[in-house]
Write a structure and sequence with these properties.
Elements (H helix, E strand, L loop, with lengths): L1 H82 E6 L2 E6 L8 H10 L3 E2 L5 H10 L10 E8 L2 E4 L19 E4 L9 E4 L6 E7 L4
Parallel strand pairs: 4-8
Antiparallel strand pairs: 1-2, 2-8, 3-8, 4-5, 4-6, 6-7
């Protein structure tokens, strides 16, 4: 009888210990599953970080390339600006386009001036004509000069500001062409040359000094 009781006590103790071990095992399995999930999350985060790092590296490389391009462009613009001879005279600032070829047509020259918030030069007096004539330089040949803002519209010579020309400093008054440039190798009051729009030349832009 005593032996049976001992066996029962041992069996109960073993059963309780077994239940406890099963619970511990279940807890360990749950923790293992949780750790596995956390590990997977960390792996995903690590992969995301790697991808973000790669993107940042690529963006950094792009920024360096863009910075280099901007620096080169800035240097080009500085050189470009140096060659655009800018001179203040009376109430206007004049831009003398002295770059090397390819030069520009009359239309292209006006587009360039307008892109700089100015327009082609309007010569309204002998004094202004003298200033411009003394500033331009001879280049290429006798008939290459600087486009001015004068064109023929309905057989009337009109400046780009809408005013009709009253000076008429023509070198070739009989020419039927419709666009005007000023040439250096000519007398002061006979230095405007009629020619075609497609003839490529240097040019002069003008902007009021108070606006500039």
């Amino acid at each position: 009888m005593i032996e049976l009781m001992v066996i029962c006590v041992i069996w109960v103790a073993v059963a309780m210990e077994s239940k406890k071990l099963k619970q511990n095992l279940s807890d360990l399995e749950a923790k293992t599953e949780q750790l596995t999930l956390e590990k997977r999350d960390l792996q995903n985060q690590t992969e995301d970080l790697r991808m973000n790092m790669t993107k940042l590296d690529n963006q950094n490389q792009d920024l360096r390339m863009n910075m280099t391009k901007l620096q080169n462009r800035n240097e080009q613009l500085r050189n470009y600006s140096d060659k655009l001879n800018k001179i203040l005279f009376q109430e206007s600032c004049y831009f003398f386009y002295n770059l090397n070829p390819p030069w520009k047509t009359w239309d292209q020259s006006r587009q360039f001036c307008q892109s700089m918030k100015s327009d082609m030069v309007v010569i309204s007096s002998l004094e202004e004509q003298t200033f411009i004539k003394n500033t331009i330089t001879y280049y290429h040949d006798t008939w290459h000069g600087y486009w001015i803002g004068l064109q023929k519209v309905n057989n009337i010579w009109i400046w780009v500001d809408g005013s009709p020309d009253t000076l008429g400093y023509w070198n070739n008054p009989e020419s039927p062409e419709n666009f005007a440039l000023i040439i250096q190798n000519a007398t002061l009051t006979q230095s405007w040359y009629k020619t075609i729009n497609g003839f490529r030349n240097r040019f002069i832009c003008e902007i009021k000094a108070l606006i500039f």
